[in-house]
Amino acid sequence: MGACLSRNPNKRQGDDKDKQIAQEEDTKTKNPESKVAKSKGKSNGAVPLGKLTKFGYSTNFDEKYQKGKLLGHGQFGYTYAATDIVTKEKVAVKIIEKKKMLLPIAVEDVKREVKIMKALSGHENVVQFYDAFEDDDHVYIVMELCEGGELLDRILAKKDKRYSEKDAAKVVRQMLNVAARCHLNGIVHRDLKPENFLFKERSEDSPLKATDFGLSDYITPGKRFTDVVGSAYYVAPEVLRRRSGPQSDAWSIGVITYILLCGRRPFWDKTEDGIFKEVLKKKPDFREKPWPSISPSAKDFVKKLLIKDPRARLTAAQALSHPWVREGGDARDIPLDISVLSNMRKFVKYSRLKQIALKALASTLNQEEISHLRDQFDAIDMDKNGTITLEEIRQVLSI
């Protein structure tokens, strides 16, 4: 829960020549639901590349599935419930509009997302990929339907209010399993956060499933990403320093674990830049209530995932062996302090309100207004790096 980032919308791996990086600055953009994905917005009146692209997927979606209710939507598409016409199996389908794929990188983003979902399919804690389809206007990604709700909602819905370290360790273990499998396959998720984990069903023993691989990418050994993507509360220091790799996922799980144990974010400020400064400089607080009542093993686990230096941080695979997170390990099976659920409830409410406000604002803008905003962005973005700095705003206001 937190704004997606696109401070520098270019997606690259580090250690490349400066000239190549400079060229890519002008041509690539990432695809998060962010403030502005600048270079994707300009088609100069040309037909969007997505409309001209044949992805090689099956073209008979409507013959195989009956589309149902809307489950959610993002910047580039919608997710619906659907039913297999023959087997009657319920599935989820992500429908992406081809007309919004203006540039080659947008097309590659979709192809990569499908490829990654295929590679990870079969893991018990990853939403299962079933098939991909296309027609002249859309790409359809058919996947497992998860009806058990989001992670934090599930915790807050506990009727007896009994929520323990053991409960937290169980879900963290499943997150680490996902990250470890990703990294084993040369994949970095890059956007691990509570709302990207859903329970398969409402039963108590339902598995937790990782969803939304839209920002995920392949990485080769020794290489680093130099773009800034993810969600502000969960972004790792090395992401902000533009030299990130698989360890950024371990950091994000550390942030989630901190929230699961105390209900608060370890790094917070009113502004995105303020959050980034906290991530880079501040040490998480382990003194304020309820931390004194939380086990030393739990605190040790979180601290080892929130080490600023990724080289000293536990990997996802190493974290799975920590005594606190191991099945039958040190995690206490007694209810956490009542303040944890109270804090968590406030956090969820704040995040939902922010999401609603942002979506409401977006829905009030027509294409002409969006185009005008984009032109204003370009006018203020003096160094053309895809972001607007405080100094650039000051210069405009002083004119």
Automatic annotation (TrEMBL):
- List the biased-composition ranges (Basic and acidic residues): 12-36
Membrane topology is:
Lipid-anchor
Q: Which residues form the signal peptide?
A: none
Q: What compartments host this protein?
A: Membrane
Q: What is its EC number?
A: 2.7.11.1
Specify which residues bind ATP according to the UniProt entry for this protein: K94
Name the residues that span the membrane: none
Q: Does the keyword Calcium apply?
A: yes
Catalytic reactions of this protein: L-seryl-[protein] + ATP = O-phospho-L-seryl-[protein] + ADP + H(+); L-threonyl-[protein] + ATP = O-phospho-L-threonyl-[protein] + ADP + H(+)
Q: Which CDD domains match?
A: STKc_CAMK
Keywords assigned: ATP-binding, Calcium, Kinase, Lipoprotein, Membrane, Metal-binding, Myristate, Nucleotide-binding, Repeat, Serine/threonine-protein kinase, Transferase
Query: What broad class of enzyme is this?
Result: transferase
Give a Gene Ontology cellular component term annotated to this protein. membrane
Molecular function GO terms recorded: ATP binding; calcium ion binding; protein serine/threonine kinase activity
Which SUPFAM superfamilies does this chain map to?
EF-hand, Protein kinase-like (PK-like)
Q: Which stretches make up the Protein kinase domain?
A: 65-325
State whether keyword Nucleus applies.
Answer: no
Quick one: where's region Disordered? 1-43
Principal localisation? membrane
EF-hand domain ranges (all copies):
368-399
Family, according to the entry, reads as follows: Belongs to the protein kinase superfamily.
Please give the name of this protein.
Answer: non-specific serine/threonine protein kinase
